[in-house]
């Protein structure tokens, strides 16, 4: 065991953490922003908008991965465009990992933010308007502080989902050691090669992180 | 002064209000969901009419033809919400100064003092009482020196004692307030007390409008009678030019003068009945006691009639004493001036 620990490649841990943080940050700002914007939509448009944004939550991650591949493959227009103009490679790359994790985790953030905004007493927003506040001030001085517990829970859940992502990530970014190899992918890879001890160490680490996250959720919801 | 000509499609009906009210103390009565609050929201600019115009105290706030739609934050209208809508994340002090510029904050201490909020200025809204919350709401509105005040079912959540108290404070505030004040309320007392003019609306249309005292005295329509607190209403049929039968009670009423031809119903306020122990006079009502509710200072009698509906009789102190000594009267009598003729 000590031998395995001493030679353990820690890169999946840091890669996973980086993916989790980056995708959560994107999820947070985009999720909060889009959820707030959607409140101003006409009801029918809002229903379609919500359905599209939360679709990845009910789709198998491999299906999401399939679509992402379809869009970003370097043999397809978008992939070609991104590579030729910006040298950005999505498939088999770290950006691909972040993108896959983001798409899969986004609905959690969006749903949490949206339900928090919907539960907010509308009269508070109206009161803000009649008291001379701009929409910008209302959002930052009233809406955000009041809904912050839900927004943070949303962010934490997104983070948890992002660091556990496997299906879409493995299809879009693959399992390249030191580059796109996340903990989840590493566990699958190790089990395939019958390295149960090393896989078990990673499982322990994941359990520990998951426990910390749930603890944090409890703390926020108090 | 309020001039309205607004149309807005709502879920169940179209709000369609056209009126011009010269007075600047205006009450809006209506059943729940009649569109009362929507009118206030449109005055404040929170909701937009589909078309029309809104003119309040010589200022055009909205005009769909001229494409005028002043933003709520620039209308400078104070809006007192039913639940006060204090920001729960901010302290009392922060609630009051939110939206004020630096120079305007000089007055804050004076306002806190005036509304007895100095001691709780650092408390969050969930830590203060209902009466204090009402004062914070008023202070927050008045510190901005609004041109008009809107009360949307304000104070209806307070208990009776506190409500009286706050209403008294509002009365004091309104004495020095030159702009318009508009009350949406299902508390008739509030409208009767504060408003010179009253508008009664039903399903988005004006059903009655005019001087408040007159509307309470002569409600004219069934709905207005109910909203102004009339407990006894019956449909009628004509028997002759000056005799009608109240169908729901099986009682005939005789009038000394000829009745208008367009009456559909009559109403009798619960306190207007006069007890009679001997069979004398006209318009006597025979009844059987159904039940009696003892209230602290008055009694409510519920009486069977010959028809399908009961009659409610409110017995106040002096009559209560008479009944205690003489027993239940044989008949109730009603003066013809006190019979409300309703369309």
From TrEMBL, chain A:
Write down the membrane topology. Answer: Multi-pass membrane protein
ABC transmembrane type-1 domain spans which residues? 13-218
Question: Which GO cellular component terms are attached?
Answer: plasma membrane
Indicate yes or no for the key word Membrane: yes
The UniProt entry, under SUPFAM superfamilies, shows: MetI-like
| Alphabetized UniProt keyword annotations | Cell membrane, Membrane, Molybdenum, Transmembrane, Transmembrane helix, Transport
Is Transmembrane one of the keywords UniProt gives this record?
Answer: yes
User: Where's it found, cell-wise?
Assistant: Cell membrane
Summary of the function given for this chain in its UniProt record: Part of the binding-protein-dependent transport system for molybdenum; probably responsible for the translocation of the substrate across the membrane.
Q: Which family does it belong to?
A: Belongs to the binding-protein-dependent transport system permease family. CysTW subfamily.
Q: What is this protein called?
A: Molybdenum transport system permease
> From which organism does this entry originate?
Lachnoanaerobaculum gingivalis
> Lineage of the native species?
Bacteria, Bacillati, Bacillota, Clostridia, Lachnospirales
Q: Give the gene symbol.
A: modB
TrEMBL record, chain B:
The keyword Mitochondrion is assigned to this record: no
From which domain of life does this come? Bacteria
Reply yes or no: does the keyword Kinase apply: no
Domain ABC transporter per the UniProt entry, residue ranges: 1-228
Q: Extract one GO molecular function annotation from the record.
A: ATP hydrolysis activity
Q: Which UniProt keywords apply?
A: ATP-binding, Nucleotide-binding, Transport
Q: Which PANTHER family match?
A: SPERMIDINE/PUTRESCINE IMPORT ATP-BINDING PROTEIN POTA, SPERMIDINE_PUTRESCINE IMPORT ATP-BINDING PROTEIN POTA
The name of this protein is ATP-binding cassette domain-containing protein
Species the sequence originates in: Lachnoanaerobaculum gingivalis
Q: What is the lineage of its organism?
A: Bacteria, Bacillati, Bacillota, Clostridia, Lachnospirales
């Amino acid at each position: 065991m000590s031998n395995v620990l001493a030679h353990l490649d820690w890169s999946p841990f840091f890669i996973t953490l980086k993916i989790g943080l980056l995708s959560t940050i994107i999820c947070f700002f985009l999720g909060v922003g889009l959820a707030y914007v959607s409140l101003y939509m006409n009801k029918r448009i809002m229903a379609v908008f919500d359905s599209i944004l939360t679709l990845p939550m009910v789709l198998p991650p491999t299906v999401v991965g399939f679509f992402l591949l379809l869009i970003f493959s370097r043999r397809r227009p978008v992939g070609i465009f991104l590579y030729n103009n910006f040298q950005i490679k999505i498939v088999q790359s770290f950006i691909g990992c972040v993108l896959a994790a983001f798409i899969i985790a986004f609905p959690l953030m969006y749903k949490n933010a949206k339900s928090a905004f919907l539960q907010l007493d509308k009269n508070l927003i109206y009161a803000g308007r009649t008291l001379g506040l701009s929409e910008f001030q209302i959002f930052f001085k009233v809406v955000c502080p009041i809904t912050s517990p839900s927004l943070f829970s949303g962010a934490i859940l997104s983070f948890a989902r992002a660091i556990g992502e496997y299906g879409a990530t493995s299809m879009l970014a693959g399992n390249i050691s030191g580059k796109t190899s996340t903990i989840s992918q590493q566990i699958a890879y190790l089990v395939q090669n019958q390295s149960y001890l090393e896989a078990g160490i990673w499982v322990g680490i994941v359990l520990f992180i998951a426990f910390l996250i749930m603890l944090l959720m409890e703390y926020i919801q108090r | 002064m309020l001039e309205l000509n607004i149309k807005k499609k709502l879920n169940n009906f179209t709000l369609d209000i056209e009126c011009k009210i010269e007075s600047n103390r205006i009450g809006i009565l209506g059943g729940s969901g009649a569109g009362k609050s929507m009118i206030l929201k449109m005055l404040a600019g929170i909701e937009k009419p589909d078309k029309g115009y809104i003119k309040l105290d010589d200022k055009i706030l909205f005009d769909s033809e001229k494409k005028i739609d002043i933003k709520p934050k620039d209308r400078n209208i104070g809006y007192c919400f039913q639940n006060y809508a204090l920001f729960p994340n901010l302290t009392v002090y922060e609630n009051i100064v939110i939206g004020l510029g630096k120079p305007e904050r000089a007055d804050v201490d004076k306002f806190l003092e005036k509304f007895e909020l100095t001691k709780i200025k650092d408390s969050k809204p969930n830590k203060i009482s209902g009466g204090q919350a009402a004062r914070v709401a008023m202070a927050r509105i008045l510190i901005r020196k609004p041109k008009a005040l809107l009360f949307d079912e304000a104070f209806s959540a307070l208990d009776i004692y506190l409500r009286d108290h706050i209403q008294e404070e509002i009365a004091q505030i309104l004495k020095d307030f030159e702009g318009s004040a508009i009350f949406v309320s299902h508390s008739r007392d509030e409208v009767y007390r504060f408003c010179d003019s009253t508008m009664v609306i039903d399903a988005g249309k004006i059903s009655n409008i005019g001087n408040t005292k007159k509307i309470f005295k002569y409600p004219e329509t069934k709905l207005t009678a109910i909203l102004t607190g009339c407990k006894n209403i019956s449909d009628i049929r004509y028997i002759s030019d000056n005799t009608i039968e109240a169908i729901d009670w099986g009682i005939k009423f005789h009038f000394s003068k000829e009745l208008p031809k367009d009456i559909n119903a009559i109403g009798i306020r619960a306190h207007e009945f006069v007890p009679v122990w001997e069979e004398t006079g006209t318009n006597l009502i025979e009844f059987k006691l159904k039940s009696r509710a003892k209230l602290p200072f008055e009694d409510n009698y519920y009486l069977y009639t010959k028809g399908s509906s009961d009659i409610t009789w409110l017995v106040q102190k002096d009559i209560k004493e008479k009944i205690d000594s003489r027993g239940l009267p044989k008949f109730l009598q009603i003066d013809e001036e006190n019979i409300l003729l309703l369309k």
